[in-house]
Specification:
The chain has about 1000 residues and is mainly beta. It is built from 16 helices and 47 strands. The protein has a 22-stranded antiparallel barrel. The protein is globular, with a radius of gyration of 31 Å.
Length: about 1000
């Protein structure tokens, strides 16, 4: 057993608290006074997820070791202590860690935007490398992906249990050689409770002071532990109410936020319409435009104003300035800023010891999760096109007219069931010293997703009208006789009169019109994962002077399959103004073999209290044709005098996800500009773009008159290669002998991903094609840009999945922990920070070192520096907590080719900091009360200019790093029987 001495206890506590040993504590290490140091080692015994008589197994290894050591940086989070910060779910806990908070995290604020996993999905991206490169485990075994639509590939954090979790380990370097594909940026391992007797009831709530976003969480956990086994089961319920756009001052009016670059004076368009909401200085709110008509050729924009018309041909319509047009409607205030979610989770874990083969343990795990998410856009703009000859069009002189109107809000509804079952056994192999572990895992995600759509074919029917008698109109499809023998199916067509909607003043249609042209349509997604793994380990294969050599070997087989079936109208492209989607169906099998070794090289030598070597390797082979070797090597060096050094070098591997291979055809709308627009003015003669545009017969002052359609497919044509990566870490941990209970740690990380599977982006493909000297040569990016039509417009861009050249991140993690008993109270201080030095990508291999690389560090969503810190004061049953979260300033000027002093756009997000305060009272060992405040000063997200994707006035890219909900009070009560 580990010696329970004062010196060992203090040293281990320092390493653990610094977040740098194999059981390093992140949020909420146990609070212990100096006179409790002996008992603290007993606390460590509770952290062992697999233990023999004198060894433990930790995340990042399959070998039990007789020391608390690791060559990799690991942070351990104790959820009970995390609750002091008011974090009520595993999603909040994981996304708030510094390894995650320095990059965009997908959450429930993304209403109206399409992200992987579908509406309501929450995911985790470590180091900003993407959620598909972060592996999530439950008790050391892979969790199955879940979500809706065709791009399911990651674990939805909503499925994670909370009440039954003992701890969460975050391995912050690549680990494909240990755990397989996807462990590129790191691994998260959720460890569940296995030694609980009794029943615990836990209830908590968050109540925002501005209303909306209320959270209610409750759970009941029951456990039984006997001489030969244990069983723990839990039922959890979680509900969050929506936060509406009108409930937050910063989101009520999405104004432009433009400023004069010389004077700083606001340049926003002022609202002259007294009937509309406006910004704090009278700025006009920009959302869905409505209540006016765009008349094309001759072009003008008009509003209905009987008796005041200024066009003799159209006496009831008046040409309106931009300032008086209504760009905002009160119903926008009902749009969901934070989507509501309701979920329940049932979890059960157990084991039983039997006497087979000298000692065998049977175990099982079961988890069932149901999530329901909804959202709506508040309003939805609709602009049907009426030709100049249309009988309802009052502008007979026009080529066509577009009345800008509203239909029902664009609504999304998702219900997702995720299940996971594990059955396995482990034991010993006679008296050989070898242990074995085998498990079968089955996971399944079944989701139904729906949205409100406008049926394009019915819009066509409703616009194709005839005059049946003077002033009376009907749809031609109603008037024209059906061919003999063809059944009359579907509802009766209702003529669509958008001009009447404008004249009524609200730009809305009659219920009969809406009932005909709209529908709520559902699609279904199923993702299934079957996994079998077995491993053998021996912590003492043979002995060296410095200790026992450990080894582990194993095998793993997995099958993943996806089947996404969009609704019939979405599949047929019959949804007006929305993207279409084809069926995504496919599967892949993978077989893997791995080995790991642990070698103690030196012990109890000068400058070498210990020196251990770790190594691992894995071979991966996919049926889809992707295979590769990965390996990892690391050293753990105890120098002495409270100094420890560790370092690792490893490679990782990620085969393309199923959706990257098999995604059904998706269509979208291009939002950029044609690279040939005004090429004769913007480009020097002889430049590749000038020459290429001219070669297609375009005039120098060409101006595109329509935008191309963007299509996206999976790429199972053999063009994709697997991603490869390498990760380097090096760290030093210092616990000065002259300062008791102070621990300092610095870890360097450097991760580079080559041939990353991603979409280039339609704008990048379009521009690169016309900048290529090999223009239109087969095998270049121009393969994915269609030819031009008779008007010179490109018709289609193929933005499917390809390999980009690289993504690279580099930086430092810092950890400080200090505790001291002042007599009046015991103080524990924890501080964790991440400083990113490099965050870059390169879409194309330009052949030069650094040429063509994009510097993302410090841009919106990628701050250079983040930290979280907290201090706790404990006296008897009372605990007072104060926490702080900091995100450094971000800007998007350089990234967009602008300078801060020379543009009207405000693309700055300054330093952002929030505070939390909590008071906890332990009535006794079984009863706990807690109350606190998150975002104590009610910090709001900073506005950016209306040239970026935004949530209200906030940048969408930085939305996960700023508090969109605001100040909230949280309360919790926990009772064990």
């Amino acid at each position: 057993m580990i010696k329970k001495t004062h010196e060992d206890s203090a040293f281990l506590r320092g390493l653990l608290a610094a977040g740098v040993s194999s059981l390093a504590l992140g949020i909420g290490a146990p609070a212990l006074a100096q006179d409790d140091q002996v008992d603290e080692i007993e606390e460590f015994d509770d952290l062992d997820d697999v233990a023999t008589d004198d060894t433990i197994v930790v995340t990042g290894s399959r070998i039990a070791k007789d020391v608390f050591s690791s060559s990799s940086p690991i942070q351990v989070i104790l959820p009970d202590q995390s609750s002091l910060a008011g974090l009520l779910s595993a999603t909040e806990i994981l996304q708030s860690t510094t390894a995650a908070s320095g990059s965009f995290q997908l959450g429930d604020f993304a209403s109206g935007f399409v992200f992987d996993g579908g509406p309501g999905a929450n995911s985790l991206s470590l180091r900003g490398l993407g959620a598909t490169r972060t592996l999530l485990l439950l008790n050391g075994r892979r969790l199955n992906p879940s979500g809706t639509r065709g791009t399911v590939s990651t674990v939805d954090l909503n499925v994670l249990p909370t009440a039954i979790v003992k701890r969460i380990d975050i391995l912050k370097d690549g680990a494909s050689s240990i755990y397989g594909s996807d462990a590129v940026a790191g691994v998260v391992n959720i460890i569940t409770t296995d030694d609980f007797d009794g029943v615990t009831i836990d209830a908590a709530t968050q109540l925002p002071t501005d209303g909306g976003g209320e959270v209610y969480r409750g759970s009941i956990t029951a456990g039984l532990t006997g001489d030969r086994g244990h069983m723990v089961s839990s039922f959890e319920y979680f509900k969050r109410e929506p936060v509406l756009q009108g409930q937050r001052d910063w989101a009520r009016c999405p104004f432009e936020n433009y400023r004069d670059p010389d004077t700083g004076e606001r340049l926003d368009l002022l609202d002259t319409n007294p009937d509309t909401i406006d910004g704090p200085n009278g700025e006009k709110c920009f959302a869905s435009a409505n209540r006016y008509v765009v008349v094309v050729a001759p072009t003008r924009r008009v509003v209905f104003d009987p008796g005041n018309g200024d066009d003799p041909a159209d006496p009831d319509w008046r040409i309106a300035s931009l300032a008086e047009r209504n760009f905002f409607d009160d119903e926008e205030l009902g749009a969901t800023l934070i989507s509501p979610v309701e979920r329940f989770t049932f979890s059960s874990f157990g084991s039983y010891d039997i006497d087979w083969f000298g000692g065998t343990t049977l175990f099982y795990e079961a988890m069932v999760n149901n999530r329901r998410s909804t959202s709506n856009s508040g309003t939805r703009q609709f602009a049907p096109q009426y030709s100049g000859a249309h009988p309802l069009n009052p502008f007979t002189d026009a080529l066509f007219a577009l009345p800008l109107t509203f239909v029902d809000p664009l609504e999304f509804d998702v219900e997702l069931w995720t299940t996971r079952f594990v059955a396995g056994a482990n034991g010993v192999v006679g008296d050989t010293g070898w242990t074995w572990d085998s498990a079968f895992v089955y996971g399944r995600s079944m989701g139904r997703y729906g949205s409100q759509i406008i049926l394009e074919d019915r819009v066509g029917n409703a616009l194709d009208i005839v005059e049946t008698s003077p002033g009376v109109f009907d749809c031609a499809v109603n008037v024209n006789a059906l061919p003999f023998g063809e059944p009359d199916v579907g509802p009766t067509c209702v003529p669509l009169d958008a001009f009447a909607a404008i004249r009524r003043g609200d730009a809305r249609y009659t219920q009969a019109e809406l009932d005909y042209i709209t529908a709520f349509e559902y699609g279904n997604t199923t993702f299934e994962q079957i996994l079998f793994q077995t491993s053998f380990a021996n912590s003492a294969v043979f002995s060296l002077p410095a200790g026992d050599v450990g080894m582990a070997i194993g095998f793993e087989g997995r099958k993943d399959s996806i089947d996404d079936r969009p609704g019939p109208n979405a599949a047929a492209g019959n949804s007006w103004g929305l993207t279409s989607a084809g069926r995504t169906e496919g599967s892949d099998n993978v077989l893997e073999g791995f080995a790991e070794v642990y070698i103690p090289l030196l012990r109890d030598e000068p400058f070498f209290e210990h020196l251990n070597l770790e190594g691992s390797g894995r071979y991966t082979n996919y049926d889809s044709g992707y295979s590769g070797w990965t390996y990892k090597a690391g050293i753990d060096w105890g120098v002495g005098e409270g100094v420890k050094i560790r370092s690792s070098y490893g490679t990782s591997f990620r085969a393309p996800a199923l959706f990257e291979l098999f995604l059904g055809g998706q269509t979208a709308f291009f939002s950029g500009t044609d690279p040939c627009d005004d090429y004769g003015i913007d480009e020097p003669p002889g430049s590749p773009r000038f020459v290429n545009c001219a070669s297609e017969g375009l005039p120098p002052d060409f101006a595109s008159s329509s935008t191309p359609r963007v299509i996206t497919f999976g790429n199972d044509t053999g063009r994709l290669t697997a991603e490869t990566s390498r990760a380097i870490t090096a760290g030093i941990i210092y616990q000065p002998t002259f300062v008791e209970d102070l621990s300092l740690a610095v870890d360097f990380f450097d991760i580079r991903v080559d041939d990353q599977v991603a979409r280039f982006g339609a704008a990048a493909i379009f521009a690169a094609c016309y900048d290529d000297p090999l223009f239109r040569t087969p095998g270049t990016l121009c393969d994915f840009v269609s030819g031009r039509d008779a008007n010179g417009n490109v018709v289609e861009i193929n933005d499917s999945y390809f390999n980009i050249n690289l993504q690279h991140t580099q930086g430092f993690d810092f950890t400080v922990r200090y505790s001291r008993d002042f007599g009046l109270a015991n103080m524990i201080l924890d501080w964790r920070g991440t400083w990113t030095l490099v965050d870059e990508d390169e879409l194309f291999d330009t052949g030069g070192v650094g040429a063509g690389r994009r510097d993302l560090n410090g841009t919106l969503g990628d701050p250079e520096f983040v930290f979280e810190g907290d201090v706790r004061f404990e006296r008897g049953p009372w605990t007072l907590f104060y926490g702080i979260d900091f995100i450094s300033s971000q800007e998007d000027y350089t990234f967009n080719g602008l300078t801060r002093d020379g543009t009207i756009f405000d693309l700055d997000v300054p330093n952002y900091m929030t505070h939390a305060v909590t008071l906890r009272y332990d009535v006794d060992d079984t009863f706990q009360l807690q109350a606190g405040v998150q975002n104590l000063t009610n910090e709001e997200p900073d506005p950016v200019s209306d040239v970026l994707n935004r949530v209200g006035t906030a940048s969408l890219s930085a939305a996960s790093q700023q508090d969109l909900i605001g100040r909230r009070i949280f309360l919790s009560v926990k009772k064990t029987f």
